[in-house]
Write a structure and sequence with these properties.
Elements: H1 2-7, H2 9-29, H3 32-38, H4 43-50, H5 52-70, H6 73-93, H7 98-127, H8 132-161, H9 165-183
């Protein structure tokens, strides 16, 4: 039931993981174009490169579904939310490189596509299906709240520092903390 789900620590671990990842990633995805411009790409290259996130996301959905059928979803989720660390590493190590930026955007898209599927799967497995709509809806509400505040926070940082570098570096601890939260979910309960 909803009451039972809200009493489970798993609900709060998963909800916080979803919120944290959404704030972190949305700060980067919604600002991909200006981040790529700040990295030294031309406007046309930045726009076409940012579009690679969509292709990566479709691939992430397909890959995530395949992996969820074969492996523990907590581990799949933990691995997928670490991918943006590679995105950050590529962007910071190779500023101005269209190839590195393209790879970074594809990797970011893969992470987004896989993570979204993992969250729904983990919520169903850890909280059951009796009140899945209400419990996962609450988590999605937190995710959308995170999506809403992320661009404001990222652009405020840019306004203060005239750089997206802090936003990029902030991805690493946020993604690693999300991975730890996914791993802390433990085994699926037997309903």
């Amino acid at each position: 039931t909803v009451q039972e789900g809200l009493r489970r620590p798993t609900f709060y671990k998963l909800a916080f993981a979803i919120w944290l990842f959404s704030v972190s990633i949305c700060a980067l995805t919604t600002n991909a174009y200006p981040v790529l411009l700040a990295q030294g790409l031309t406007p046309a290259t930045a726009a076409s490169t940012a579009g690679l996130m969509g292709i990566g996301s479709i691939g992430g959905r397909l890959l995530g579904g395949y992996l969820l059928d074969r492996f523990d979803a907590g581990k799949v989720g933990a691995a997928s939310v670490c991918f943006p660390c590679l995105t950050v590493a590529l962007l910071l190590a190779f500023p101005g490189s269209a190839l590195a930026a393209g790879a970074a955007c594809l990797i970011l898209g893969l992470a987004i596509g896989t993570e979204v599927d993992c969250c729904a799967y983990l919520a169903g497995r850890h909280l059951g299906l009796k009140s899945f709509g209400t419990l996962f809806g609450a988590m999605n509400g937190l995710m959308l709240f995170g999506n809403g505040i992320a661009p404001v926070l990222a652009n405020h940082v840019y306004d203060l520092t005239k750089s997206y570098e802090i936003v990029l570096w902030a991805q690493i601890p946020a993604c690693l903390a999300t991975a730890v939260l996914f791993l802390m979910l433990g085994k699926y309960p037997d309903f």
